[in-house]
Amino acid sequence: MSIIKLKTILIAIMAFFHLTVRGQDPHFSMYFASPLTLNPAMTGYFDGDYRASANFRQQWWSLGSPFVTTTMSFDSKLMQLKIPEKDIFGGGIMALIDQSFGGAYNSINISASGSYHKALDEFGEHNIGAGFQFSYASRNINAGGLSFANQFTGSGFDTRLPSNENFIRTKSNYVDLNTGLLYRYSTENTEVYLGGSLYHTIRPNNSFLKDGNYRLPMRYTVHAGSKFSIGSNGNELFLSGLYMYQAGATEKNVGIAYGISVNENTSVYAGSWYRIGEAILPYIGLDNNNFQMGLTYDIINSKLRNYSPKNGSFELSVNVLMYRPRNVYTNYKRGRIF
């Protein structure tokens, strides 16, 4: 086995344990663009009536894409004519697909979430909401795509040799429950929010091993953000931050972005986030007629940068906001005459 191949395997092993032991759950640098993996109370929290979102993250791409995470979600505001005008009742569905080591490990999560946001004043400037998310997860190991210590012959790995691992199954399925709270203050030119979420509240068992009883550790998240209009030309300033804890691992992420209005329908954004002690995350974005796209790249500034010159992570997010047609009856129910 060549030195380069051995180095690649060692880097992948280190990255794998960094992800699974310290972090457990997949995460996104653009956490603010993946609302249903951040907080179930974010369901229905957006301008518009419908929202379709997608996120793609390729981590440690120089090693042949060992970690690829993809989400797709759709959420909407429900029963808008049957609840108080300033309240929001949201429902949504999401699929999260996580692959490691070229598909040797696969995880698929299907979730359904709901939230209710109650206006605390007559103008709806202060709002508090709660959300719940039910998930079904399926994890699969393709043992034929893995190599184990007992298969190392001194000159390479021989996968025909027995691994002597005590896998009783290569699939693990479980159900899960997540919950969260969100407070929002919003006016015409200012928006501020603060939220907290708890994932894996029932701590499901997802062990692959015989007689295994590995309970998925709970994930605690606190996040906040704000948006301010700058001047009268449509420019905006965004700030956000996140603190996340799971299984002894913490993530602290803060950042800022500035949006420049190009015309009535288009704005471009530039900024940066900082995952404290780990990576700098330059960010660029586009908003055109409620089509929103963002790009980031993790520039590693921890000790992990010593193992490969190309060990960062690329991430893409897409959000599409949609509005349902308005008619005379809808406007009448909302107390409008136009």
Tell me what you see in this structure.
The protein is mainly β and 338 residues long. It has a single domain (3-333), classed as Beta Barrel (Porin), CATH 2.40.160. 9% of the residues lie in helices and 49% in strands. The chain contains 3 helices and 15 strands. A 14-stranded antiparallel beta barrel has the order 1-2-3-4-5-6-7-8-9-10-11-12-13-15. Strand 11 (266-275) and strand 12 (279-288) form a beta hairpin. Residues 1-23 and 328-338 have low confidence and may be disordered.
Taking pLDDT < 50 over at least 5 consecutive residues as the criterion, the unreliable ranges are 1-23, 328-338
Radius of gyration: 22 Å
Oligomer: single chain
CATH architecture: Beta Barrel
Largest sheet: 14 strands, antiparallel, barrel
Helix and strand element order: HHEEEEEEEEEEEEEEEH
- The shape, in one word, is globular
Q: Approximately how much beta-strand content do the residues carry? A: over 45%
Number of strands: 15
| Average pLDDT for all residues | 82
CATH H-level homologous superfamily name: monomeric porin ompg
The structure class reads mainly beta
The CATH topology, please? Porin
Which strand order spans the largest sheet, edge to edge or round the barrel?
1-2-3-4-5-6-7-8-9-10-11-12-13-15
* Helical fraction: under 10%
Number of H- or I-type helical stretches: 3
CATH class: Mainly Beta
